């Protein structure tokens, strides 16, 4: 999972991009990068680490320009953590393109082979994002009239990308001398939205993964980019858009609402906070059906993303709500961290129990989801060590039983605690006295209650149904092997580039 942002401004945008990436930091903590455009020159810096640690004053001064893009990243299934795979990516032909991508392609290996043998384009990394960039570059070259681009050519190129590429992708691309091109896959699996700000010098535009990046930067939310749609904003602030997919349909990833997105974001007409509140209501009804409410003394959230669901559950069941676990906000999300040993150690560093809130009580812990079970098991042990009499557990999401191939780092079934286990067996594995999972239909309805137009969701990690229709057992086995073969992190550093490029030079 990644966070992306693109800006067409009236003045220097380096600080604006930096601030936007801070607001999207929850979407990726492995690496961060910014690329800006000044005249015909691109400037870029990217490195491993959090946004606040990657960029120093000297780096920001080396990023002049009134337009640019940025990304926060964590590596997806089987990908490398090398610095070269941090984004943005760059190609100099045919027009000079800086590129950032959120999602994961399912046919990137086939595309890479085709790019080499047919399109004669060289791919320098194992990143599916670099493959997608080169597909776009090739299609722009094919659609262009000689050495120049117009709106129609850009939209024809995106339409050709949709026909060749499968998987999840939300993209921002800075084209030298032209402006910002953004588009979303035909299913709209990954989010992308548009914001506007009127200044004395003229209109400024921002495209970002979540609305929180727009609003936190002073932009007004305009709308979401539609599935299959391409949006082009030129350097003068003129915005044009076109539907470029043949049969687009909105099938957003439901995990965005459960876990990834910030609660203050609005995605495809749904307030993430409101969705989590409603998930708490549906979960409360199931808890009431499956547990003796008189046995529960207190409801506690596992901070932070489960807090709205836990609050609403407690209110609906007329149970006491308490904050018994305190989070150290300077430790990263354990779900995103690579390696079980790192995740296990991080849980104890990230959370601490308030003993007086647990001692002698029957506690219902509420979490947004249970993926590998590492965090859940450690927290149950913490609750018992703090003096809890009994520890019950409730998940606002259903059991995660299948790999995700659209950009979430849970690629092998053997890593998922729910694979091959009943709810009772999972409860024993994490050490809980009882466990209640949200029903899939209820979780989907919680989101649909807010926006009835969302008739379908990408929920493959829960139901094993892959919306792109191209996922086989062989594909999943290969993905698992790629994860096993993935390399270790490279040492910290950074990549700073200043790339001169003559606009319209094919």
Describe it.
The protein is α+β, with helices and mostly antiparallel strands and 506 residues long. The protein is 32% helix and 24% strand. It is built from 17 helices and 22 strands. The chain has helices at 14-23, 51-54, 57-61, 108-119, 128-143, 151-164, 211-215, 255-260, 272-290, 307-317, 340-350, 355-358, 374-385, 423-430, 440-448, 460-463, 473-485; strands at residues 2-8, 31-38, 41-48, 67-73, 89-91, 97-105, 167-175, 179-184, 193-199, 202-208, 220-224, 229-234, 239-243, 266-267, 270-271, 298-301, 325-327, 351-353, 362-367, 390-395, 434-437, 495-500. The strands form five sheets. An eight-stranded antiparallel sheet has the order 11-9-10-1-4-2-3-22. The protein has a six-stranded antiparallel sheet with strand order 5-6-7-8-12-13, with helices on one face. It has a four-stranded parallel sheet with strand order 16-19-20-21, with helices on both faces. Strand 5 (89-91) and strand 6 form a beta hairpin. Helix 4 (108-119) crosses helix 5 and helix 9 (272-290) packs antiparallel against helix 15 (440-448). The longest helix has 19 residues, at 272-290. The protein is globular. Residues 487-493 and 500-506 have low confidence and may be disordered.
